[in-house]
Design brief:
By secondary structure, the chain is of the alpha/beta class. The chain has two domains: about 240 residues, QueA-like (3-Layer(aba) Sandwich), CATH 3.40.1780; about 80 residues, Thrombin, subunit H (Beta Barrel). The protein contains six helices and 17 strands. A nine-stranded mixed sheet has the order 2-1-17-16-14-3-12-13-15. The longest helix is centred in the last third of the chain and has 13 residues. The protein starts with about 25 loop residues before the first strand and ends with a strand.
């Protein structure tokens, strides 16, 4: 298939710049994957579309406040460092700006010297390895000095950093939020559990590569980035019990979907484990464990819209997106949601 087959026209004003005051007040489009039929509701209506005996799988990864604004030493010129992957020994793979000024040997400082770093290596893709020096616990230093690494299509400053975290986030490590989960409130989760839906968690630490459009002309030629994920034993048990009893596995977000599908066998049984996944899901893929998906609206020609199309059919998905544009839905990270069943 061609990457261009997953393009759609999106007016820029429909890209949500800020979260709604009420998390579950976003709109919810429903999409029947078999027929392509579309419906319109709100996210707080989600329990209407779930059934007792279903299993809801959420990604509990928490976003690092990984965007550091500092200055170069000597000279004091401004710089920005975005943490991507912990390489150990106080060293992180990072995106840096300005790249031409931050070559191996360059030193940077943040927060009046509370945190300093030295660029130790330039990687083949242009990313840098930066070794940091600080006192105390690195995550606590980041909480004081770091900012949320919002996607580049969001231009507005985030007033409350917790709005780029899910209410159930706990495992720190993502470079971006698993945004389908941003719509949930604690009350809504309690309501779902009270109706007899199992709620369980996986962890996938989201990398920035998940948002990049595919640049290859043929989507099969795209090389997927790898992300670290974990399926706890209790989640594997819950999913397997749900499947055995005839319930549906409902993943919240493409990250939960990719985790479940990475650790599911061909027989649909989910096993517990941890490791790196570079699973690439596009039309033609046969889902092993997932039945339904809660997801946001995704960028044109991204691996995310390809994953959704694998589940519901490219024509159905693009028709639903055209309707979402016509109905003035809000798109991307702080936008509205879709329930594919």
């Amino acid at each position: 298939m061609n990457t261009s087959d997953f393009f759609y026209d999106l007016p820029p004003e429909l890209i949500a710049q800020t979260p709604l005051d009420r998390r579950d007040g976003s709109r919810l489009m429903t999409l029947d994957k078999a027929t392509g039929a579309v419906g319109h509701a709100h996210f707080y209506d989600l329990p209407r579309y779930l059934r007792p005996g279903d299993c809801l799988v959420l990604n509990d990864s928490r976003v690092l406040p990984a965007r550091l604004i500092g200055r170069r030493e000597p000279g004091g010129g401004a710089c920005e460092v975005l943490l991507l992957t912990d390489r150990g020994d106080r060293t992180w793979e990072c995106l840096v700006r300005p790249g031409r000024k931050l070559r191996p040997g360059a030193r940077v400082t943040f927060g009046e010297g509370e945190l300093t770093g030295e660029v130790t290596e330039t990687l083949p893709d242009g990313n840098r390895l930066v070794r940091f020096d600080y006192q105390g616990i690195f995550l606590e230093v980041l909480e004081r000095l770091g900012r949320m690494p919002l996607p580049p299509y969001i231009k507005a400053e985030l007033q409350d950093q917790e709005r780029y975290q899910t209410v159930y986030s706990r495992e720190v490590g993502s470079a971006a939020a698993p945004t389908a989960g941003l719509h949930f409130t604690r009350d809504l989760l309690a309501q779902v559990e009270a109706m007899g839906v199992k709620v369980c968690y996986v962890t996938l630490h989201v990398g920035l590569g998940t948002f990049r459009p595919v640049s290859e002309a043929r989507l099969e030629d795209h090389a997927m980035h790898a992300e670290f994920c974990t399926v706890p034993p209790e989640t594997a048990d819950a999913v397997n019990q749900t499947k055995a009893a005839g319930g549906r596995v409902v993943c919240v977000g493409t990250t939960s979907c990719r985790t479940v599908e990475s650790w599911a066998g061909e027989d649909g049984r989910l096993r517990a484990g941890s490791g790196w996944t570079d699973i690439y899901i596009y039309p033609g893929y046969r889902f092993k464990a997932l039945d339904c998906l809660v997801t946001n609206f995704h960028l044109p020609q991204s691996t995310l819209i390809m994953l959704v199309s694998a589940l519901a059919g490219r024509e159905n998905v693009l028709a639903a997106y055209r309707e979402a544009v016509a109905e003035r839905y809000r798109f991307f990270s702080f936008g509205d949601a879709m329930f594919i069943y």
